[in-house]
Amino acid sequence: MIRKQLSKEQALQKLKHYCGYQERSHGEVKEKLYSLGVWKKDHDEIMATLIEENYLNEERFALAFAGGKFRMKQWGRVKIKYELKQRQVSEYSIKKALKQFDEDEYMASLKKLAENKYASLKSEQYLVRKKKTIDYLMQKGYEPGLIQIVMNEQNNKAG
Predict the structure, then answer these.
(1) Ranges of the chain with pLDDT below 50
(2) Are 97 and 23 in contact (CB under 8 A)?
(3) Between the CA atoms of 22, 23, 26 and 27, what dihedral angle is there, to the nearest 10 degrees?
């Protein structure tokens, strides 16, 4: 299939709309450039224009991504950090995004997830329930040290 080559201006307009709709990482925008069939020599110039006109901002993307995944999917810092690295976000932006979480809110989210998961495994034996709960929290991206603290609190309540 032969695709029509977009001019630099057409590609820029499409990408402005693409970035205006939702925060995007630099990697996502580069992928879009390839999918639009834009000449490689024009990529850097288009990216620079998007950054200058504030359509593309890595730090803003990292903050929005991390906040959204924490609030909507209850992801922990480990999983969020991994996902941001996968999207080629800079270490600086990742650190800044992870600092935005209120520690009390973060722990409350972890405790709630632990309690709900543990309660959902009523038919299981105690050690199986505990292991499945820990595995679930690890998969959600919470730090092992914090999981241990929450599970010990859970045991003290139960015991």
Answers:
(1) 1
(2) no
(3) -60
